[in-house]
User: Fold this.
Amino acid sequence: NLTIESSYGIIYAENVWGALNGIETFSQLLFITDDNYLATNASIYIQDWPRFPYRGILLDTARHFLPVPIIKQHL
Assistant:
């Protein structure tokens, strides 16, 4: 969850990767004013979560030989 009010912002995440994504989103909502202050346009509440519990997997069989049973185990 990302909550931005007029004078503060709160990021709540269940793990460090969620917090990192929240910080990235937070940074994209900020801008620098003419007086060199950080600001945002409005109060914002964002609730987000990954669609799947994993990002993906790469089995690099070109550089590392993997037996077929190991590949099937990961699929």
